[in-house]
Design a protein that fits this description.
globular, mainly alpha, single chain
């Protein structure tokens, strides 16, 4: 039954646009905590044991939650901040459920089932990206997708940036699982095909950099060697030079040779994308606005969700523009104490996962790095998967000598899957 709840959580995270009947609220805000409580209720004994053995983690999460409410209750926009605090409460319940789930399963079996489920979910999202590229007005996107950024592909994610990042993470996950003999070579080849093309279709520079960062991490853990990395990068570059939207993103839209697909097409693609200078300047404008607001309210911040609803609109007009940096977003919305609490939480996690399995470590590092030039908390699919890896890393750690090198951990930790 617990495995069913886990699958329902993954499915519910995709329902961000569907409203609960009779209520003007996304159905996922109700389903995610409901299924999370299902996991906790079936694991009460393990919940008590987890709390007993991981008091520091539980306390740090509790402080994060309490300060979120302090910032919201003292906000100049209490209605907005309280609304977002209620919505984000589902994250804390979800994360705690994942902590209990991974703690319970590592006592009795392994986490292979859950990693494979996440991999298959990412493959489905990637295939839907193919569908969007071919039929952007398909009914499934009208039902599940947020505003389209076509010709950039975002599948059913909120934005092409999230889609691209999650595809890069999926590829690194599949490489690690295959290295540890948890998926077959055929499954890996299918993953490489889906994720590499999807990564190019996203036309997200953030995602591309994070993908390269992920390969460097896998090289460090000896999950792949340089020959394998070069082969993967070569295939990825071929996809970029073949697909029009990605070719335009790297500035080769006026080339007579690229994109390569135009050599076989009677009607060359004409694509207009925002300029790199324009997107960079927009980030600087948001960062400047965040710093100004922080100076005004350095202690408790402006309140959770307030920047995107009230401050970002002063910069660009439409709602939804956050501070485009996870640390700066926490700083402006929860003040200096909130940022220090958040950094302390990350430090505690870092100390817990120092010797965790690379199957969890690589995605965690990629998730965090991707939010240095962006902020993805509002994408529930992205954050749900992120929280699972955080929980799995914390519970999958093993005690090894302090002078052990990270490169030697793969064979040692593969049994934890």
């Amino acid at each position: 039954m617990i495995n069913i709840f886990f699958l329902l959580i993954l499915f519910s995270s995709l329902l961000g646009r569907i409203k609960f009947p009779g209520l003007n609220i996304g159905i996922h805000y109700l389903l995610l905590p409901a299924f999370s409580f299902g996991i906790i209720s079936l694991s009460l004994k393990d919940t008590k044991e987890f709390i007993k053995k991981n008091k520091i983690i539980v306390i740090s999460v509790g402080i994060l939650y309490v300060w979120m409410w302090v910032s919201s209750l003292t906000s100049q926009f209490p209605s907005t901040a309280i609304t977002y605090s209620i919505k984000y409460s589902s994250y804390f319940i979800l994360y705690f459920a994942f902590l209990v789930l991974t703690f319970r399963k590592l006592k009795t079996s392994s986490l292979t089932f859950y990693y494979r489920c996440i991999l298959y979910l990412l493959q489905i999202i990637g295939v839907l990206g193919f569908l969007e590229a071919l039929v952007p007005n398909h009914w499934i996107f009208e039902l599940l997708k947020f505003p389209s950024f076509y010709p950039q592909i975002g599948s059913i994610m909120q934005n092409p940036n999230q889609f691209g990042v999650i595809m890069g993470i999926g590829l690194c996950l599949s490489l690690t699982l295959e290295k540890q003999n948890k998926i077959s070579a055929i499954e890996l080849y299918i993953s490489e095909f889906i994720f590499l093309i999807s990564l190019a279709l996203s036309a997200s520079r953030n995602a591309w950099l994070i993908f390269l960062f992920g390969l460097i991490i896998l090289l460090g853990y000896k999950v792949i060697d340089f020959k394998r990395a070069i082969a993967i990068i070569s295939l990825w570059l071929l996809c970029i030079l073949t697909i029009p939207v990605s070719t335009y993103r790297i500035g080769l839209g006026d080339s007579k040779i690229f994109p390569l697909i135009n050599l076989f097409s009677a009607n060359p693609s004409e694509i207009v994308l925002p300029s790199p200078v324009g997107t960079a300047l927009s980030r600087f404008a948001l960062w400047k606005a965040a710093i100004i607001e922080t100076i005004k309210r350095p202690l408790t911040g402006i309140g959770v969700g307030v920047f995107a609803e009230h401050i970002g609109t002063k910069v660009f007009g439409p709602k939804g523009f956050h501070a485009h940096n996870i640390f700066l977003n926490v700083l402006v919305e929860e003040g200096v104490p909130g940022l220090l609490i958040f950094i302390n939480f990350l430090v505690i996690i870092g100390s817990k996962v120092k010797y965790a399995n690379p199957v969890a470590i690589a995605p965690i590092m990629m998730f965090l790095a991707s939010q240095l030039p962006d902020f993805f908390a509002e994408d529930y699919t992205f954050t749900t998967i992120e929280f699972y890896f955080l929980a799995a890393a914390i519970n999958s750690r093993k005690l090894v000598p302090e002078n052990s090198k990270a490169q030697s951990l793969t064979p040692l930790l593969s049994s934890e899957l």
